Amino acid sequence: MKDYFSFSPEHYAKYRPDYPAAIFDFIYPLLNDKSVAWDCGTGNGQLVRVEATDISSQQLEHAFATENINYTIQPAEKTNFPDNSFDLITVAQAVHWFDIDKFNEEVKRVGKPNSIIAMIGYELNNITLEIDAVIRYFYKNIIGEYWDAERKHLENRYQHIAFPFRELETPAIQNIKLWKFEHLLGYLNTCSAVQHYKDKNNTNPIDLIHEDLQKAWGSAEVRRVIFPIIFRVGRVK
């Protein structure tokens, strides 16, 4: 598993979107038991139920604290959990960084019979046609060469990731947020390709689009930001 998000965990926690209740509304009725769950690659704990793991200690330092969550530093591909431990296994916006074959074997090992595995992610956001055009130009033409190869899995909606489980049909879900312009800038700064660009060029690529992006945003104090959700769910064993 790769770790590209320890460089600014406080920004990741602040500016990355959390996940809509519709995801859990779909998952919970599928569970035979709701005793124990594992959220792997949890990052700052935006999607956690009981056992939450990540390889980044910096991310875990910014995870929210609650009595029923136990955070540990462990790779998703090899954990110290006993066999047949979990009713639910979730991985949100992280599975594309894993060694997927090893991770799938770990899921089979620690998941209870008939447990649920849910892989969740999100696509590029949609705001307005004008704003979207600036952001897509930025993604493709300015930081395009700085994306890691694993990003193709998000672009393909995780359909090219091995999923050796009994897959269930999932609903189309959108994650809708109300953001100020500054929040959009903060979100863009959390992109791994932006960090790679900074490391190579010692400048922030967002400066190249800031004026155009602000013009496209206009005078609105807040705008609706829509993230189409990537959602694959299956039965383990």
Structural description of this entry:
The chain starts with 8 loop residues before the first helix and ends with a strand. It has a single domain, classed as Rossmann fold. Strand 4, helix 4 and strand 5 form a beta-alpha-beta unit. The protein is globular. By secondary structure, the protein is an alpha/beta fold. 32% of the residues lie in helices and 23% in strands. The N terminus is likely disordered. Strands 1, 2, 3, 4, 5, 6, 7 and 8 form an 8-stranded mixed beta sheet that branches. The protein is built from 9 helices and 8 strands. InterPro entries: Methyltransf_11, SAM-dependent_MTases_sf. Keywords: Methyltransferase, Transferase. One of its GO terms (molecular function) is S-adenosylmethionine-dependent methyltransferase activity. One of its GO terms (biological process) is methylation. This is Methyltransferase family protein.
Radius of gyration: 18 Å
How many β-strand runs?
A: 8
Question: How much of the polypeptide forms β-strand, as a percent range?
Answer: 15-25%
What name does the CATH topology carry? Answer: Rossmann fold
The helix count comes to: 9
**Percentage of residues in helical conformation:** 25-40%
